[in-house]
Write a structure and sequence with these properties.
The structure is a homodimer. By secondary structure, the first copy, chain A, is of the alpha/beta class. Chain A is built from eleven helices and eleven strands. An eleven-stranded mixed β-sheet of chain A has the order 3-2-1-4-11-10-5-6-9-7-8, sandwiched between helices. In chain A, a hairpin with a 6-residue loop joins strand 5 and strand 6. In chain A, helix 1 crosses helix 10. The N and C termini of chain A lie far apart (about 45 Å).
Chain lengths: ~350, ~350
C-alpha cells in the first residue's frame, strides 16, 4: 500500500500537558474540523478517547494506541527509554517505525519529548544538533519570525549555529516563505560585534548557501525584518521569555492605568474587544508550540499549559511540518555545506 | 579644604549624544532645578554653555572645562587615550584626579565611555570586570530591577558574574533597597538548570555573602520578584533589547487595533493621557542611562538619543551613585569573598 502525504497521520499525545486529557482531545476535534484531510494516531486512554471521537464524528480518521502511562515533568527525561509504554515513548516509536505517520505532537515534559526525539526517532543524517524553534509574531500581522534554538542546546559551537541556520531556512521555505532572511542574534548589527561564539559563527553563515543578512539586535526581533533568528538555546530562551515578560509588563501596566480613572475606564470598555483580539494574536496560544527540527521526522512540543485552541494550533503546526519533504531538504542542504575543516 | 558628599560635583559631558549640546545643557538645568544641592563640572564649548547657565541662574553651581573636541560613535573606543582634549577624556581625567567630583555622565560613544572608565579612571581594587547596568521598571511601580551586565563584557567567567552580583548588591543597597534579592538569569528556576557558565556560577553565588535567591527565568525579569539580575553582557544585552522590541510590538499592535474601528478609536481618545503616562514610566527616558559599576568612581552612560528629560535623569543617577561610599563598600565586599582557588 502506498501512502501519499495527504493520508499521513499526525501522532498526538493525549496524556501530556497540564490540561490533559480533555484539552488535548478537544484540540484534536478542533484541528480535525479545520482540516478535513487530517488523520490522527491518538495515544492515551481508549476509554476516554473513544466516546469523544465518536461524538465528534471523526472516529474514521482516528486510530488509537491505548496506554494510561505518562511521563511527568519531574521525571528525568531519559525515562522515555525506561518507560516504553508511556505515551511519549509509544509516540516516538511509532514515528520512527511507521511509514504512514508524518509528525508527533505532545504537550508533555519538554525534556522527555526532546530526549525521545533524539534517542528514539534519531537525527537527520549530518545534523549535529536538532533545534527547538517557535514562530513568533511580528509588527507585520502577516509575518512570523522563527527563533532557533530556544532551549534544546545550552552550549553551542559555531557549526551547531550553522546547522540551525540551514534548518531554519529550509523550514521557513517549507511553509511558504521565499528566500528567508536569516540573521544572527547579536549585540549590534556590525559584522565584528559579539562574543566568541557569534564572532566564529558569522563567517560560517556568510559562506553558507542561505540569504544571510548579518548580525541583528534583539530589539528588532519582532520587527518583521527577519524570518529566521539564529542563536544558542540559552540566548534563545532568554529572548523568548523576556518577550513574554515584557509583554506582560506592558499589558498589566496599561490595564492598571486604564482602571485608575473614570474617563479612561470608559475608554477601556470601548477597546476591550480589540485588546482581546490582539492578545489572541500575540499570545502563545496563537502558535501553539515549537517545532523540534533536525529529528528524522518533525516533533512539535506544545506548551504544557495548552488549552484546546492552542493544542489544535500545535497539531496543525505538526501536520504542516510533516507533510512536505522537509527532512530530505535539510539532509541535502547540510550535505552541501561541508564543514571548513573537511574542505579540500 | 574638606569636601563632604553634598558638595561633590557631577561631571557632565555636554558634547556627547545625538542631541548635543543643547539637550545636554537643558538636562543640566532640569537636574539643577530638581536638586538644589547638585553642583556640576560641565565639559564643552564655553561659548554655548555660559549664556545658558547664566540665563538659568545656576552659574554659581557650575564650573566649565572648555573643549570643542568629542569622540564619535564611529571612532575606535581607545581614541579616548589618543584624544586627551576630547570631552570624554577630559571628564575621565578629572574624575580620576580630583577629590571634589563624584561621578561622570555622558551620552557619547558607549565604547569610549567604557574604555575611558577602565583605562583612565581605573577599576576598584579586586574587581575583575566592571559591569554596565540599567535599572528597569517592574510590575510594581515602586520597584526597579538592576540587570548587570548588559554589554560591557561579552564572554564572562564565573568569577566575573560573582563580582557582578556583589557589585549589583552593593549598588542596590546604596540606593535604599534592603537586603536585595539577587538572582542568576537562567532558563529555569531549578538549581541544576543552565549552560556551563551558569552551572559554574551558581555555587559561587550560593556561597557569597548576598541574598542569593537562585536561578530565574527571563519571563520574571520585570515581575518585581528580584532586585538584581546577574548575567554576562551578551545575555543581558539580548534581555534588555528584547524587552524593548517586545514592548514596541505590543504598543504598536494596540495602536493599530484601536485605530481599526470607530468605537475603539473613541476609546483610544479616552485613554490617551494614561497611555502617555505609562509610556513615560516604562520608556528609557524614565531612567536615563546605565551605571558602569566597578570603576573607582561611578560613570553613567546615558542613551545616545537622550532628550533633556532623559539626560536630567541620567545626571541624577550619577549624582546618587556618586554621593555615598559605594566604591569602598564594593572593595570591602569583594575582598571578603576570597576566590575558591585561593582558599586556605
Amino acid at each position: 500500500m502506498v501512502y501519499n502525504y495527504i493520508m499521513k497521520k499526525v501522532i498526538v499525545d493525549i496524556l501530556g500537558g497540564d490540561n490533559a486529557p480533555h484539552a488535548m482531545l478537544d484540540g484534536v476535534v478542533l484541528a480535525a474540523r479545520k482540516d478535513p484531510d487530517m488523520h490522527f494516531v491518538l495515544i492515551g486512554d481508549e476509554v476516554i478517547i473513544r466516546p469523544k471521537i465518536d461524538e465528534a464524528g471523526i472516529a474514521l480518521r482516528c486510530e488509537i494506541i491505548h496506554t494510561m502511562e505518562s511521563i511527568s515533568n519531574n521525571e528525568p527525561p531519559t525515562n522515555v527509554k525506561s518507560k516504553p509504554n508511556s505515551s511519549i515513548a509509544l509516540g516516538m516509536m511509532a514515528l520512527r517505525k511507521r511509514d504512514d505517520v508524518s509528525a508527533f505532537v505532545s504537550a508533555g515534559s519538554t525534556g522527555a519529548v526532546l530526549a525521545g526525539a533524539v534517542l528514539m526517532v534519531g537525527r537527520i543524517p549530518g545534523v549535529s544538533r536538532p533545534g527547538l524553534c517557535p514562530l513568533f509574531p511580528t509588527l507585520d500581522p502577516n509575518k512570523k519570525v522563527l527563533v532557533i534554538d530556544i532551549g534544546a542546546n545550552m552550549d553551542c559551537r559555531p557549526e551547531h549555529l550553522l546547522h540551525f541556520a540551514i534548518m531554519g531556512n529550509e523550514y521557513m521555505k517549507s511553509i511558504g516563505v521565499e528566500n528567508p532572511r536569516v540573521a544572527l542574534v547579536n549585540v549590534g548589527t556590525e559584522d565584528k560585534k559579539g562574543n566568541e561564539l557569534t564572532s566564529a559563527t558569522f563567517p560560517l553563515l556568510k559562506d553558507a548557501d542561505i540569504n544571510f543578512v548579518g548580525n541583528m539586535e534583539a530589539k528588532d526581533a519582532f520587527s518583521g525584518k527577519y524570518d529566521v533568528l539564529v542563536c544558542d538555546g540559552f540566548v534563545g530562551n532568554v529572548l523568548l521569555k523576556t518577550a513574554e515578560g515584557a509583554m506582560k509588563l506592558v499589558s498589566q501596566r496599561i490595564k492598571a492605568e486604564i482602571k485608575s480613572g473614570f474617563i479612561s475606564s470608559l475608554g477601556g470598555l470601548l477597546i476591550k474587544s480589540k485588546m482581546k483580539k490582539m492578545k489572541a494574536e500575540l499570545g502563545e496560544d496563537s502558535v501553539g508550540g515549537s517545532v523540534f527540527i533536525g529529528a528524522k521526522k518533525p516533533v512539535v512540543k506544545a506548551h504544557g499549559s495548552s488549552n484546546a485552541v492552542a493544542f489544535s494550533n500545535a497539531i496543525a503546526l505538526a501536520h504542516n511540518a510533516g507533510k512536505g519533504d522537509l527532512s530530505e531538504k535539510i539532509e541535502q542542504a547540510i550535505a552541501r555545506c561541508t564543514p571548513p575543516a573537511n574542505e579540500e
